[in-house]
Amino acid sequence: MEKTLIIAKPDALQRGLVGEIIRRLEQKGLKLIGIKMLSLSSELLQEHYKEHLEKDFYTGLEEFMKSSPVVVMAWEGFECVNSVRIIVGATNPREAEAGTIRGDMAIGTGRNLIHASDSKQRGKEEVKMFFDASELFEYDKSEYRHIYESSERN
Ligand code: IDP
Ligand code: MG
């Protein structure tokens, strides 16, 4: 099953919006398979955001991501990377649709509350980057048959 990495960024923690982020993903029917709180290191951030290392916003981004702990989560579900990106909304919250996490609750691009993997491959890699195998859980979600057709569940 497809996996995606979510980070509730320092602004989500400071503003008390971690629960709201989790609520929206739970409500969709996705399965939480890993969750922990941590302070991000420069090394991990440089690896995670390697596509942005040369951008002019990178220094500010790294500083912000280290400004308080974050909550990292691994979620699983059929085509969940795309579903979660839709729930999260556009990178610039002022352009994000109402009803999305960023559209409803954020304004600044550098304070957009949440990270979500942007492709199936990145989802796999990012979950591996942030979680040891022992921190990820396999379990049956009893309401799955009410969320998916059997062909979508494998
Ligand atoms: P994404 O988080 O929607 O995938 P990316 O383009 O991958 O967006 O950028 C990663 C993060 O870098 C964004 O979520 C945002 O926090 C920050 N960022 C991106 N572009 C800007 C910018 O122009 N100014 C400030 N921060 C930015
Ligand atoms: Mg991105």
For the sheet with most strands, the description reads: 4 strands, antiparallel
Helicity, in percent?
25-40%
The portion of residues forming beta strands comes to 15-25%
* Global morphology: globular
CATH architecture classification = 2-Layer Sandwich
Question: Looking across the biggest beta sheet, what order are the strands in?
Answer: 2-3-1-4
- The radius of gyration is 15 Å
Helix/strand-derived category reads alpha+beta
How many separate helices? 8
Number of strands: 4
- What is the multimeric organization of the chains shown? single chain
Order of helices and strands: EHHEHHEHHEHH
- CATH class equals Alpha Beta
Question: Topology of this protein?
Answer:
Blueprint: E1 3-8, H1 10-14, H2 18-28, E2 31-38, H3 42-48, H4 58-65, E3 70-76, H5 80-88, H6 101-105, E4 114-116, H7 120-130, H8 144-147
Antiparallel strand pairs: 1-3, 1-4, 2-3
The structure holds inosine-5'-diphosphate and magnesium ion.
